[in-house]
Write a structure and sequence with these properties.
two-stranded antiparallel sheet; about 40% helix; about 280 residues; about 20% strand
């Protein structure tokens, strides 16, 4: 069972106006969880801000909403590396970040810093796209039936102890163009349902989380099935697990999870494996 850390919520910002969504969500999360909020802006070595750290601190304080208390951190270095290291040093339970830009609904550009952070952070990363008005009310988790995805579901359940969660597993008939008999599709779906049931039975889910979960099979490839589920259920939060450690983790994130992060219109929680 996942044991949530009691450390702070850390929000990363490059001081741009679009980061206000991430900052507002992080402040809400810290308040709901009763923990410290840490705002971090990484100063690039040799930049103008690095020559006047007092001004940099004032600029960081300026993006914090009135009435919100936050510890300010201004490490100097590479943004994704410094953020991941600070989160580890502080024992942060969550990193919150925004996207580099959003061109239109379904077209989000994470940016190289966020992409690097997702591949290297040792704590969950919450990617905020929408302006927060309230706590998350509906979650949707994608599972490939791996231990990593079970951990992601448990982590999301611990971080967000109230909203219901749809758990989606994609299935499809191999070489469907050649498989004409209906019994092949029925048998494949039945086997997928058995595998999903077995996964949930051994996933070590707390009873309160299991009670608010609705598992479901969705036909199609993984990305298409999850996007169809997002369109159908309109979740506030999409839950994704990343696979592997080190170099393999870097490669794994580049497939379905990365595509979903760029196209799903809702916020996303990306949970790393316990490496």
């Amino acid at each position: 069972m996942s044991q949530m850390k009691t450390g702070p919520v850390l929000v990363a910002t490059n001081l741009s106006a679009r980061d206000d969504r991430a900052i507002d969500r992080a402040a809400m999360m810290a308040k709901l969880r009763g923990v410290e909020l840490v705002a971090v802006h990484v100063v690039r070595p040799g930049s103008r801000r690095s020559e006047n750290m007092d001004a940099a601190r004032a600029a960081l304080q300026d993006v914090i909403p009135d009435g919100v208390e936050a510890r300010l951190e201004l490490p100097v270095g590479s943004a994704p590396t410094a953020i991941a290291q600070l989160a580890e040093n502080l024992g942060a339970q969550l990193i919150v970040t925004g996207v580099a830009r959003f061109n239109d609904i379904g077209d989000y550009f994470l940016g190289t810093a966020v992409d690097h952070l997702l591949r290297h952070a040792k704590v969950p990363v919450l990617v905020v796209k929408r302006r927060p008005h309230r706590a998350y009310g509906r979650m949707l988790a994608a599972t490939d039936l791996s231990d990593t995805s079970a951990g992601a579901i448990r982590t999301a359940g611990a971080l967000f102890p109230d909203p219901p969660m749809h758990v989606i597993h994609a299935w499809h008939v191999p070489f469907a163009g050649w498989q004409k008999a209906s019994h092949v599709s029925e048998e494949t779906q039945a086997n997928a349902q058995k595998a999903l049931n077995a996964f949930l039975a051994k996933a070590d889910l707390p009873p309160d989380l299991a009670a608010r979960m609705a598992p479901e099979l969705m036909e199609g490839g993984a990305e298409r099935a999850v996007l169809d589920a997002v369109a159908q259920y309109e979740p506030d939060l999409l839950v994704l697990g990343t696979q592997g450690c080190g170099g393999f983790r870097k490669a794994a994130l580049g497939n379905t999870a990365s595509a979903l992060l760029g196209s799903a219109p809702c916020d996303a929680l990306v949970v790393p494996p316990h490496c």
